[in-house]
Structures are given as C-alpha cells and as structure tokens.
Amino acid sequence: MQAIKEKLGFWTSTSLVVGNMIGAGIFLMPATLSTYGGISILGWIFSAAGALVLARIFSNLSKMMPAADGGPYAYSQKGLGDFAGFLVAWGYWISLWCTNAAIAVSLVSALSVFFPILTSNAVVAMITALVAIWLLTWLNTKGILTSGKLQLVTSILKIIPLILVAGGGFLFIRVANFIPFNASGTSAFSAFIATATLTFFAFIGLECATIPAGSVENSGSTVAKATLTGTVIVTVVYILSTVSVMGMIPSKDLQHTVTPFADAAAIIWGNSARYWVSAGVAIAAFGALNGYILVQGQIPFAIAKDQLFPRIFLQQNEKGVPVAGIIISSVLVSLIIAMNYTKGLADQFKFLILLSTLTVLIPYLFSAASYIIIRFQNKYSIKTKWVSAILLASFAFLFSLLMIWGSGADTVYWGFILLMSGIPFYVWVIWKRKKY
C-alpha cells in the first residue's frame, strides 16, 4: 500500500461538499415544488435546519475521529459495531452506483441543449455518458489533489448561475406567485412534510468531506469546518434561488417547464441567458459526477481496511488513490447506464434509483445514534456540553427518521430489502476472516 503524497485542503474539501450537493437536480426543484405553493419555502427552511444539524454532527464526529476514512461508515462502525458499519457502507456504496448513473444521464440531458442528437439517438447518448464516467475515472486516478482542484473549479462555475438568478430575480418577484400558500390540495402538514422531504434530497452529499478524511490535511479541523461551511453556502444559495424563481414565474407555468432557471434567466437578461444557464446545469452535473467518483473508491477502501470487504479494494496507485475501488465501481455504474439506455430495462433503472434513496438516509440515522454513543464512551477535545450533545443527536436522529418516513412506504420497504441483500456477503466475509 502506497502512502498518500497529496492531501486536500480546506477549500477543496469544502468544494467536495458543495459540488456533491449541488447537482443538476436543483435546477428542476422550483418546478417540482410549484404544485405545493408558497408552503414549500417552509419545507426548504425545515430541511435546511435538519441538514445544518446533521452537518454539525458530522463536523463533531470528524473531530472525534480525525483521519477516519469512510465517514458515515467509520462512525457507525465505531459506535454501533461491525455489522451496522457494514450495512451503512454496503447500502451507501450501492447508492453511489445508482447516483452516478443518474448524474451521468442528467449531464447528457443538459448537453442536449447544445447537441440535439443526444435527444434523438440513444446510442450516442449512452456513449457520451460512458465517456464522461471514464474520463472522470481516469482523472481521479491521477491523485486526489487533481480531482479536488477540478471539484473546486466546477463548484464555483455551477454556483454562478444560481447566484445571478437569486440576486437578479428579486427585482422581478411578485408576491401573487406564492398564492395560494398551500396549492397541493392536501393538509398543510402533509404538504409541509412532502416539501421538506423533496428539498432535503438536495442536501444529500453534506457528509462527503468526511469520507476521504485520511487524505485531508489536518483532517480533524479541516473536515469539520469544510462540512459546516459547505452546507451553509448551499443552504443560502438553494433557498434564495428557489424563492427568486418561484416568485418570478407563476406556478401554473412552472408546472409545465423543465428549465425553470433558464426561464427565469431569460426574464432577467433575455433569451440568450438560457444557454449559459444550461451550461451551468451541465457543469453542475459534471462536477457532482467528479465528486462522487472520488467518493466511490474511498468507501470500499475504508471497509476493506477493516477486513469487511475483499482485499482487492485496498489496492492503491503511486498517488495513494484506491484505484481498484474506483475502477470496479465505474464498471458497475457503466452497466447501470447501459441498462438505462436499453429500452426494455429503463424502468428497472428508475427502480434502482428508488431503492437507493433509503441507503443514503440510513447512514445519517446511524451516524446520529453513533455520535452520542462515541461522545459518552470517550473524552474528546470538542467543546460540546452533554445536554447540547444529547439534544443535537436527538434532533438529527428524529429528523432522519422523519425523512425516511416522508420518502414513502415503497422506498422504505424496498430500501430495507436492498440493505438486507448484503447480509449473505457479510457472513461470507466474516467467515473468511476467521478462517484465515
């Protein structure tokens, strides 16, 4: 195993948080929320509060366990044991395949504005998605600093159109566009929970700076600051830009558009603005894909170090990159992309995305539970009083449960089945470990 020669700093770590949270999905969020009305802003605020609490949890955990690769896996394994840690890592790793496949597809969709053939020719679209996957896989094998710098650049570029629309749009906001306050046709509570759940999915990725902690300079403090800073930046950008777009465009028009930010930009600066917003969507997808490809190698590497995964995932190149994990994961992502562009299996792809939802929320739930256990078992230098620690962990735990409940019965059921599918593999790994 090679020593890691390059390490991420504060801003590259922060960009990993920002870049992985801000994908192409946020550019469609105003249209998704338009059927609920102004109450969706309250959903944003509540989900943002939950995300900030979880960010605080991960920030404190990174101080308690500096240089612990795997983030949520390492924390769950420390607090709840090998089996809980394995379940978190197993589900999280599978969700990364599905997430990266979905991001690659959204990248192709964004590029279709400039290259219409990507809409009409499935083979060309599939090849484009695969080229993006393997180009970024190759770049990530060149060292974590290389991928970190790319992440920083793309994070800045993807935030620019969001900030411009958020700032410029406030001059065009009409209060009437937020009326009726609850347009969902359901109770205010149901609409509130639905919008909170929808908007919280845009915060998924807040934990990403903790995953390659062993590759971060002065990891204890750097990861903690990057996690909180990145989450705060994203929260401000998300809420302001969504309020701006929903205030500019009537809900009946938002419900029938797939380019809400481009439409808003056209109102402010004219039709030509549609193209630079579309470019921002493509950059957002490209940057998120880069960040998650970096992460997809770190998760199996962390598990393999604890002898809960095959030793092949321990292989590193001369730059200290867990190259085997990155390449094997990209092969699996490529298979899912191929499934998506195979006409008969498109529905199966959507089904896999549905299943991966719970596997992202479970690590948050387990990490919140592990936080209070680790805090009680050991004395660390973090300045958190016991009462504050209990309240923080309780809110994060209950919030995660609420988001799981809000994601729907089908998601919970099939997500549970997906997690349980790893048990035979876990039993085999443990048997092999004891045998040798």
Counting helices, strands and paired strands, the structural category is mainly alpha
Number of strand segments: 0
Distance between the termini: 20 Å
Largest sheet: none
Mean pLDDT comes to: 83
Amount of helix: over 70%
Q: What overall geometry do the principal axes of the alpha carbons give?
A: globular
Our count of helices gives 18
Which blocks of ≥5 consecutive residues have pLDDT under 50? none
Strand content range? under 5%
Radius of gyration: 21 Å
Order of helices and strands: HHHHHHHHHHHHHHHHHH
Summarize the structure.
By secondary structure, the protein is mostly helical. 73% of the residues lie in helices and 0% in strands. The protein has 18 helices and no strands.
Describe the structure.
- By secondary structure, this protein is mainly α.
- Helix content is 73%, strand content 0%.
- It is built from 18 helices and no strands.
- The protein has helices at 10-21, 29-33, 39-64, 72-80, 82-111, 117-120, 122-140, 144-169, 188-200, 219-248, 251-254, 260-269, 273-305, 323-340, 346-377, 386-406, 409-420, 423-435.
- Helix 1 (10-21) runs parallel beside helix 10 (219-248) and helix 5 packs across helix 15 (346-377).
- The two termini are 20 Å apart.
- The model has no long low-confidence stretch (mean pLDDT 83).
State the main characteristics.
18 helices; 436 residues; mainly alpha; globular
Task: Describe the secondary structure blueprint for this structure.
Blueprint: H1 10-21, H2 29-33, H3 39-64, H4 72-80, H5 82-111, H6 117-120, H7 122-140, H8 144-169, H9 188-200, H10 219-248, H11 251-254, H12 260-269, H13 273-305, H14 323-340, H15 346-377, H16 386-406, H17 409-420, H18 423-435
Helix pairs in contact: 1-8, 1-10, 1-13, 3-9, 3-10, 3-15, 3-16, 4-5, 4-15, 5-7, 5-13, 5-14, 5-15, 7-13, 7-14, 8-10, 8-12, 8-13, 9-16, 12-13, 13-14, 14-15, 15-16, 15-17
